[in-house]
Amino acid sequence: MDGHAPEAPGALSPVVDPAEVGLDQARLARLERHFAGYVDDGRLPGFLITVSRGGKLAYVCRYGRRDVEAGLPVTTDTIWRLFSMSKPVTSVAAMCLYEEGAFELSDPVSKFIPSFADVRVFAGGSDIKYVTVPAVEPVRIWHLLTHTSGLTYGFHRSHPVDAMYRAGGFEWGTPRKTDLAACCDRWAAMPLLFQPGSEWNYSVSTDVLGRVIEVASGLRLDEFLARRIFAPLKMTESAFYVGAAKRERLAALYGAGPDKKAARLDAMGYVADHPPTFRSGGGGLLSTAADYLRFTSMLLGGGSLDGARVLGPRTVSYLLSNQLPGGADLESFGRALFAEAPFRGVGFGLGFAVVLDPAAGKTLTGVGEASWGGAASTAFFVDPNAGLSVSFFTQLLPSSAHPIRSQLRQLVYQALTD
After folding, report:
1. How far apart are CA 109 and CA 142, in angstroms?
2. CA–CA gap between residue 141 and residue 109 (Å, rounded)
3. What is the pLDDT of residues 179-210, one digit of tens each?
4. pTM beyond 0.85
5. CA 374 to CA 380: how far, in whole Å?
6. Rounded CA gap, 76 and 61, in Å?
7. Among 40, 223, 375, 381, which residue's beta carbon has the most beta carbons within 10 A?
């Protein structure tokens, strides 16, 4: 199998010769050759990569299959689970409301979600018998956007509070028939890991932010995203569910086994054909490479794309600026969680990781590059200084199974000719 198949209607195709935008075609070809090795030896089912520069799509490659067992190839209209690549979208949505004066970043979350009024902070003990103290300051909207709220994820498995989340039904999902409002109330009733603003910990913060959006706007999160992000940007394939008509295009989900080979993971791969009860702004969106390219192109366009303005340019610049106190990076300010690469020299903005010092991270990249990824090994980055927008789509849990993200960067940046 050469990894290719007839192209889908309405294909995502390059619109410019790479050389015209400072990219070397022969060097870009190294991307496909390198990652094809992951497919050929069974580590990945398939993948799709896009590289855009100066607002023009210069390179697209796809290889392997979106469903190995069914023999279905990756096509440019394949639908992917974004998991945490949903977070930047929700963060941008929140800033749309910020620009309207709906809230200030310093506003307490309890202004919109009353259950956050009297949160407690873990001070010792186990997940069954523990001691808490009052929060010295409220959880604020800024804390949600920067993951400094003290909230957590059950799948971290590094703290007693993580175990409380798991016991409550929050690990790789939420309790059945529990909507976003109810989940937020349950999280607020559990202890925070630390005092708000004192540390960084990857968490359900963006899901809580989604609920703030609902209360502030009077719309369900899916409705707000559709009106304020997807419609103006013409992201016609992005939603919280696929629907029966599109289900055949949805990529199957795989997990990395002990031998690093991809094994089908249908237990987590199911996606309803109908809107979910819990709309997760932190990890519930599905999209295509073409749609997500429009989102990242809007960021590089200073908040505007094809005449549609989503955010003001100063807001986008603020989003993509390090927000950690004292200019700290994630390694010094964050919790020591397992990841595919250390976060040395990488700060955090409002929903995006931001490169502060490329040398510290030992990966070819650029100062100011903003990025994030999803649990199924998807990834994107935008580099405003280089005019780059790059995305990688596949469906393999966990994202730490292979060093895809660092290798993606080195293979893209080495292809620049200016």
Report:
1. 9
2. 6
3. 999 999 999 999 999 999 999 999 999 999 99
4. yes
5. 9
6. 9
7. 381
